[in-house]
Write a structure and sequence with these properties.
It is a single chain. The chain has six helices and no strands. With about 100 residues, it is mainly α. The longest helix has 16 residues, at about 85-100. Helix 2 packs across helix 6 and helix 5 crosses helix 6. It has one domain (about 20-100): Cytochrome Bc1 Complex, Chain D, domain 2 (Orthogonal Bundle), CATH 1.10.760.
Length: about 100
Amino acid sequence: MKTLLLFCLLLITSNGYADPFQKADALAGKALVDKNCISCHAESFGGDGSAIYTREYRKVKTSKGLVAQIRNCNTMIGLKWFEDEELNVASYLNKTYYKLTE
């Protein structure tokens, strides 16, 4: 009985994807990406700029790496985002491109 209960609980709480940024606001993150990131990424990678996230040799491999890369961009181009804004961007990028679980 305990095993069945545990299994049911896991099914209810899991959709097969553990989101490391579940408390962040992905919609707010999308707005920040659209406003501040796309033009630079499109200039560097062509098209809509999303190739930076999907390229085979991408730098980001973990959720910590994703946040570090966002902070690096934030600092380099002087966006002055707060930590919650960085996490919102991480949430959006993770849900849309990376699908990182750690």
